[in-house]
Specification:
Blueprint lengths: L3 E6 L6 H7 L2 E3 L2 E4 L2 E3 L7 H9 L5 E3 L3 H12 L4 E6 L7 H15 L5 E5 L5 H15 L4 H11 L3 E6 L3 H6 L5 H9 L2 E7 L5 E8 L1 H14 L11 E5 L3 H14 L5 E5 L2 H7 L4 E6 L10
Parallel strand pairs: 1-2, 1-6, 6-7, 11-12
Antiparallel strand pairs: 3-4, 3-5, 8-9, 8-13, 9-10, 11-13
Helix pairs in contact: 3-4, 5-6, 9-10
Amino acid sequence: MREYCITTDSNSDMPKEYLEKFGTVIIPQYYSFGDTVYGDELHMPPAEFYERMKNGELPQSQACNPAVIEEKFRALLAQGLDIIHISFSSALSGSYGNVCMVAKELLEEYEDAKITVIDSQNVSLAETIMVIYANKLKDSGASCEEVAERLEEFKGHLNVQFTVDDLFHLQRGGRVSKTVAIVGSALSLKPFLYVNNVGGLTSDGTARGRKKALRVLVERVVATLSEDADYTLPLGIVHANCLEDAQNLSELIKQETPFREIMINDISPSIGTHAGPGAIGILYYGKPKQPPKEK
């Protein structure tokens, strides 16, 4: 049996300790301010990115680059490694399609190799949790095929609950109307969203005020925990330049749930482009993800 490795993209927001532990190869996602593109060799500190957004600059996000995907995959295949790639949700980006296209082309050259591309139907640290789980299976002796099969079931239990601080960033992305953004902002309404069972975003009510929104966010996590949850896996909290809120959420999660290992990281700019400063999310294994709400 050929050796294999698990890769993912930078939208996984994978903390440095896990990058080093697993030696994970990361496919960069891109974002830009004007003509300057970031995400590969050129990076911007998240705090600076969100401060620029707060000051009115509007960035754009971009899918991963097929040439970069090929370069990174080719280096692994040349070492005799098969690949399982865990991709950012196909419902939110063209990156999954780009990876599939490159994989197909490379397999025509490396006929004995396997490249399995998993549509995570998730975002951010939910992808990281999938990488952690996949490596846990790999270390237990599971084959490449077994890991891929288990991931397909596992991903449906990864819940992503989040709230944003500014409705106008959602309005730019077409998630809410301009009227809702204006009225909601005037009333200090904070919307809730979740990643649904097909990997898209679904709006799910509001709370009035930031403190109330954070409390409700924890309540939603508690309400969607699964009885068979593997609490040896970490829970993730991501934030857009609001670390103190993330740390407070971490303490509440420890009080209200059995999770003890909690990852806290910045929301990558390529995701934060659409969420805006002050966005915060919780990502964890729970009950099966919900379908989109009927309009």
